[in-house]
Structure formats: C-alpha cells, structure tokens
Write a sequence for this structure.
C-alpha cells in the first residue's frame, strides 16, 4: 500500500475501530452490570419479604410466596433441607439446593401455647380469669438478617419453561430461634434482551461507522494532499524541461504544505542562481584561458616557423599567467566543493612579515606594521590559504596604488585584523560588494595583461569565510581602498592558565 491516502485512511479506520470496539465492550459490560444489579435488587426484595414472614412466625406451609415465574423461592433450614418452595417450580440451579420438593424438618409451625399454673383449672371460669390472663406467654418475635445477601446466577424451570435468574439469599430467625435461609430469584430476561439489542446495534453500526470514517479520511487526505500533487507535477516538469526559472504553485494557506512550497521555490531560486554562477564561471574561465593559450600558441607557431623570432620571455609570461589562472580555478573548485580549512595554529604577524619580505620586486614597496613577537596574533586555519589571502590583497593594492601600500596586523575584540590599504582611486561605495564576485574587474578599460583575471578578491573572501572570518573594503585614510580581514583569534592557553592561577 504505497499511497499516502490509503495508508492514512487505513490507519484512521484501524484506530477508530479499536476505539469503538473498546467503547462498545465497556458499554456492554456496564449495561450488563447495571441490569444484573437491578435484578439482584428485585431478588433481594422478594427474599426479604418472605424472610419477614418467617420472622413473624408464619408457618412455612402458610407462607405467601410470589409467583414462581417472576420470583422462584426456596426456603432451607440450617441443615440445608428444603422446607418450602414456590408452586409450579419444576427445576432450579444456582441456589443452596436443587430440590423442588419440601423435606421433613423440625421447624415448628407455631411458637407459643396458653396453660394454667397447675395444669388443670377451668379456662372459661370467672374467678380464675385473672390468673389465666396472667399466665398467658407472649411469643417472641424473630428477625431478618441485616447483612448483605449473597448473590448467585442460576436457572429455574417453571411450567416447562427454563430461564436465567439472579438469586439472593437472605437469612431469617424465627421466634423459636430457628434460622432459615430464603433463596429468591429475579429473571435476567430484561438484562439479556437489552444487552442483545445493544450488541446487535453495535455489530450493525460498527461496519457502517468504519466505512464512513474510511471514506471521510480518504476524501480529506486527498484534498489536503492535492497541493502536494501540484508541487510534484511541477517539479517533474521542471526536471524534464531543465527550466529552473519555473516555480511550484504556493497554496494560500499557512500550513505545512504552504511552507513546503515556499521552501521548494526558495531552493529552486538558489539552485537557479548557483547554476547561473556556474555557467558564468565556466564561460569566464574559458574566456580567461583562451587568451593566454592563444597567445602562447601563436608564439610557439611563429617560433616553429621562424626560430629567430621566438619570444621566449613572452611565452614564459603567458605560461606563468596560465599556470596561476589554473591554480586559482582549482582552488575555487575545491572551495565550492566544501573543502574544510586546516586546523594549524598560526601567528598572523609572522605570516604577514614573511609575505612582505618575499615581495622584493614590487613596483611600490610595502610598509608593514606588525607587533613584536611578544604579542602573538594567533589564529587557526590553513597556512597556505591564509597566505593566499594576504598575497592577493597585496597584489590588488600594488595594481591600483599610486605611491604607497601599507599592511598592518592588530587584535580587536577577540579578532585578529589584517588591514591592507593603498592611495589609489579606491572603490566606489556601490561597487564594494560587487568586486568580490568572480571575474569582476571595475577597470574595464585596463588590459587583461595588466589587470588580473578578477579572481583574487573572490578567492580571498571565500577563504576568509571558510575560516569563520570576514573580508570587507572601506576607504583608506590616504583616499584609496582599505581591505580588512578579520579572523577569530585563538585563545592563548598559557595566558588563560596564568589568569586562572591567580
């Protein structure tokens, strides 16, 4: 089952089915318990009525017993013998005994008699009437047990018909001190009928309810997933056409699907921009490579035809330029691939001093302001890549400066700042972000041989970002450009340990 709609409908149906079955069983159990308790209460009332007669010393053969079909009754003595039973009761189960014929018992039929003191006077004589009245014994009254009765379930057969009953057993003590037990029943037909009706209604209604739940869930899920299908269809069309300018439809709601559509469109926008940058990069790289390759080929062809005209220095220059461009392109490719910088501990002051000391052939000497070694300016990263940033910034300053190029290193609020400034024309404020794009040069009139390929600053900013730093450009005090590289300073563990020891 691969459809989300089908899985959702099935899951919802199963959950509702389990809930309905559980609720139905609970209802049936509660209903059965309540009706059984009602039947037990009726049986208890019938048993106490008969027990009340016994407590009033009504002889067992004169008991007023209820109709056997409504309330079958048995009366047993302390020895379990049946002393009284409802008329027309043919068979019974679930009580103290299954007998339906009374047995001989020592239960007295009356509790008191009147006698003379001497056993022989005239009971009807006038002068002895007072003595007779004084010697009449008043029978003692019995009692009905106040304890909760015992309840059992059983059956009773009356006039050939057998039914289920709820029996209650109540004890009664006669005036003569004889304890008898009354077993009275109440029919469970009402309970069985009600439970059966509810069960049939559930068995009929449950499938119908589950079909309704499944259908409603299917339709609601289909409606909810309709925008997703639209997104999928549009993405499929974009993939087939390779047209990244297309966008998926965004529903007007504010739910997860709308956020998915917006995120998808944002991803398509970023992908389109990335593809456009890649295409421009390939086109610009091809253009930049074509010039030195074409120049080198021309010189080699001329040298092959006329060896005396071979411009070896020019060929070497074009080869060096081609090699540098290839190195820049390779570094950019590695950066785009997500290459992580190294984790070497570096002193930026020493690195800048080393880079400046190697630039002996520059057109304009570089003035360096580096703190003494006693104040280390340490960062973490790749030495070659950070040296590449410093070199590119110095190359850019040399290319645009008129008379001075300066570089300084300092610490500022937990960062190491390398600043390179010149006294050239500077960078117009609207163009200060554009110069960090690849193959961008503001001086279009300048020949490509004199200017760079437009990759130096782009490489410098990419490397700075890979090292969790920033590279920005502002106006220098001399009027030219001032580039500032900020890198997170590496904490000095020795110094922090000394502070902690205080």
């Amino acid at each position: 089952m691969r459809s989300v709609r089908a899985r959702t409908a099935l899951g919802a149906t199963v959950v509702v089915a389990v809930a309905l079955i559980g609720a139905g069983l609970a209802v049936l159990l509660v209903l059965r318990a309540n009706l059984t308790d009602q039947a037990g209460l009726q049986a208890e009332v019938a048993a106490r009525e008969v027990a009340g007669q016994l407590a009033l010393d009504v002889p067992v053969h004169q008991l007023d017993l209820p109709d056997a079909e409504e309330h079958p009754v048995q009366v047993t003595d302390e020895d379990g013998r049946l002393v009284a039973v409802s008329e027309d009761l043919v068979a019974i189960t679930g009580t103290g005994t299954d007998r339906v014929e009374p047995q001989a018992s020592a239960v007295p039929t009356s509790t008191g008699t009147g006698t003379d003191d001497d056993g022989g006077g005239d009971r009807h004589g006038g002068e002895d009437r007072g003595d007779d009245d004084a010697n009449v014994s008043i029978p003692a009254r019995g009692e009905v047990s106040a304890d909760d009765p015992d309840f059992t379930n059983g059956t009773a057969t009356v006039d050939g018909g057998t039914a289920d009953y709820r029996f209650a057993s109540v004890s009664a003590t006669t005036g003569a001190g004889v304890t008898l037990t009354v077993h009275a029943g109440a029919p469970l037909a009402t309970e069985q009928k009600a439970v059966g009706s509810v069960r049939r209604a559930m068995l009929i209604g449950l499938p119908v309810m589950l079909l309704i739940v499944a259908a409603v869930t299917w339709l609601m899920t289909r409606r909810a997933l309709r925008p997703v299908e639209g997104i999928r269809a549009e993405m499929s069309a974009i993939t087939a056409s390779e047209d990244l300018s297309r966008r998926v439809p965004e529903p007007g709601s504010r739910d997860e699907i709308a956020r998915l559509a917006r995120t998808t469109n944002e991803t398509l926008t970023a992908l389109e921009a990335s593809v456009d940058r890649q295409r421009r990069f390939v086109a610009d790289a091809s253009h930049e490579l074509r010039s030195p390759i074409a120049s080198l080929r021309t010189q080699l062809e001329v040298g092959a035809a006329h060896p005396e005209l071979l411009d070896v220095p020019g060929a070497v220059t074009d080869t060096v330029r081609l090699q540098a461009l290839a190195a820049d392109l390779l570094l950019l490719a590695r950066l785009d691939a997500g290459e992580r910088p190294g984790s070497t501990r570096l002193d930026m002051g020493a690195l800048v001093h080393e880079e400046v000391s190697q630039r002996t052939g520059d057109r304009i000497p570089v003035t360096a302001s580096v703190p003494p070694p006693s104040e280390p300016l340490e960062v973490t990263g790749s030495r070659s890549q950070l040296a590449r940033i410093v070199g590119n910034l110095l190359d850019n300053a040399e290319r645009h400066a008129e008379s001075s190029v300066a570089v300084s290193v300092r610490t500022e609020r937990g960062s190491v700042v390398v600043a390179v400034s010149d006294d050239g024309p500077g960078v117009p404020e609207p163009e200060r972000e554009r110069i960090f794009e690849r193959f961008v040069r503001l001086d279009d009139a300048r020949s490509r041989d004199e200017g760079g390929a437009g990759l130096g600053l782009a490489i410098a900013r990419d490397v700075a970002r890979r090292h969790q730093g920033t590279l920005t450009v502002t106006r220098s005090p001399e009027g030219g450009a001032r580039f500032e590289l900020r890198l997170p300073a590496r904490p000095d563990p020795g110094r922090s340990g000394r502070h902690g020891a205080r």
